[in-house]
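Pipeline run #58 for the internal structure catalog. This entry was flagged by the ingest filter as a single-chain record with no existing model, so it goes straight to prediction. Upstream metadata was stripped on purpose; only the residue string is passed forward. Reviewer on rotation: M.T. Logging verbosity set to normal.
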Amino acid sequence: MELHLQGRKGWKSSVVLTLLLCGVHHAGAVPVLDQSFQPQNPLLLLGTASEGNSAQTFTVGITGILSQVDVLVEQNGPFPELRLDVRPTVQGLPMEDDNAALASVTVPLAAIPFPRAFLSFDVSSFGIHVSEGELLAIVLTGNARWYGVAPGIGTPIVVEALAPLADDPYPRGAAYFRGPPGAPTFGLPGGGSLVADLGFRTFVDVVPEPTTLMLFGIGVLGLMLGRVVRQRPMGRCLSHG
């Protein structure tokens, strides 16, 4: 009987270990670079401050949990902080309601780079599940100059003026501007005629499919049950001896 009880204890321990391993697999997932637009010769396109919001839409390429968003920015004056929102889109435009953000992270002035560099925002705590093909928006409010490109613009100027329509540098999204914050809608820069994109990167934690986890669990449980069955005759023989 002693060996039989040990087998049962081992089986229970294996079940617990299997569940813990599944949890650790998710918690220890390494972020994978999903979408990225890194302009080779970036121009200052949009400055965000108290008078407006800059935005860049992107199309999710990997299903999982959105964990990090990077933006190519530098400080824009003495404004005290910079807020990044991840928002849904409506008919291709960033959602206008500030309270509709899926994630919102604020950093102080000291954290904003100068000169320009990619600034990372950790959004993993918000648990944003994203699906391949979903269109989302990155929205900045506060202190930043957000750099990008607009084909046909060849000088480092703030292109808030009209510019000719050109090829799309990042075809899975676009840059938008809204001013002042709370204005009724986002629109294309340059009075609605500028095709532009802003530097950004998104990272996703890939979550195992439930079927994969289920098959893994069934396999481990099968091995443990087989071990218990093999141990039972030996336990009985010892108990009758």
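catalog note: Helices lie at 2-27, 189-192, 210-240.
catalog note: The CA atoms of residues 98 and 182 lie 8 Å apart.
status: ready for reviewer M.T.
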